[in-house]
Amino acid sequence: MCGLLPGVLHLLSSFKMSTALQFPASVSTLNNYNDLYPDWTQREVSTGTTIMAVEFDGGVVMGADSRTTTGAYIANRVTDKLTPIHERIFCCRSGSAADTQAIADAVTYQLGFHSIELDEAPLVQTAASLFRDMCYRYREELMAGIIVAGWDPRRGGQVHFSSCSQTRRRRSGSSERVCVCVCVQVYTVPVGGMMTRQPVSVGGSGSSYIYGYVDSNYRPAMSKEECLKFTAEALTLAMERDGSSGGVVRLAVISEQGVERQVILGNQLPKFSTV
Amino acid sequence: MDSHHSYSQVKGVSTGTTILAVKFNGGVIIGSDSRASMGESYVSSKTINKLIQVHDRIFCCIAGSLADAQAVTKMAKFQLSFHSIQMESPPLVKAAASIMRELCYNNKEELQAGFITAGWDRKKGPQIYVVSLGGMLLSQPFTIGGSGSTYIYGYVDAKFKPDMSLEEAIQFSTNALALAMGRDNVSGGVVHLVVITEAEVKHVVVPGNKLPKFHDE
Predict the structure, then answer these.
(1) pLDDT digits over A64-104, tens only?
(2) For this structure, is A47 an active site residue?
(3) Helix-helix angle B66-87:B93-106, to 10 degrees
(4) Which of A205, A213, A275 is opposite residue B154, by nearest beta carbon?
(5) Which one of A31, A49, A100, A215 has the fewest beta carbons within 10 angstroms of its own beta carbon?
């Protein structure tokens, strides 16, 4: 029995080494655009998109549009760009659809493995770091902008306060009050492979149009309903201006209780006076 | 994430900029930032005025190559004053916009400038016209332009209401320009606003330290 263990460990470690994937060079075909011919034959599939994530006290709201384009053709008008990476960690994908799907699959595998090794729920920061490592290492070949968000329990003498925090007694029964931050976090990993934590983050081609709206409307201590409304409105505004974003609005709320998903259909989207 | 950088190959000094015009109850407000840049990293002027008066109650604001814009507005000013003398009455805002459009359309190969023309005339009251790069002319209740405008499309779509009061319109314009200046590195400086009504033309300057602040500042 003992003799087998080192062998098994060696197998597991070599398994981990082989997670380095080969990425093909992305097709760049920005020339040759002509209105007379359909360009979906030459353009790669892109989630030109609008994605967003907002922290609130007790959870995080993630949202995305649902359009995937191949040039001017909408390859999928009901795409789900909110991809689960772990039970309470999701990512929003923007950029090349192939690249982001491959990265998300690789990170899901790595994170699942890590979580089994640790025998506890992984940290959102770990997931974000895995995305960042991959996006940075292969930054020449990849075109991916990702927002990672979720919930994780952090234990013992922590210092990481986010916009939500609760104080709890230590389970050991000690009489001191220890701050245990039950954290929700949003990390953004844009093209190029930087990672940074932000209370609210937007991404994708449609995000340019809503920077002003998000800057003026975000407030730090919003409730869940206010965050949902804020996200839905921001995504609607972006979808109205960006040709590569549209369809329905998909929302996900991640908190300690789990993940709630909802869809806002086209005719139920918020309306603004100029529209 | 698709790149949303506009690598403008604009010749020489450019007004990488944010400009806007909005109609309110009784007049129009036309506004801009005050930065002129060369390339994307050198600010050649912090206090340029991009709001050019082409007639008593008609203003233009420019985006794109400063040299082209100055040449076109100079020509337009001359033609408009001549036209006004011939007609023996103040020119229509549409006439001013049409002159700009003719110049932009007929010289579309050489020119690289877009304009917003706004003003007040007796026939139709307050109006706003946009002349884009290739020479299209369009009338709108409000409009934004320049490189910084990308970032405030969502904000203006959400916040614009037709028939605002003067105070609401000033607040709307100042907020929109401040938000754009906060995100666009080639827009900045102070906010210039010109309020045009039947009675008068008022120039309002909001310096940097008086600009509205948002949650992360």
Answers:
(1) 999 999 888 899 999 999 999 999 999 999 999 999 999 99
(2) no
(3) 130
(4) A213
(5) A31
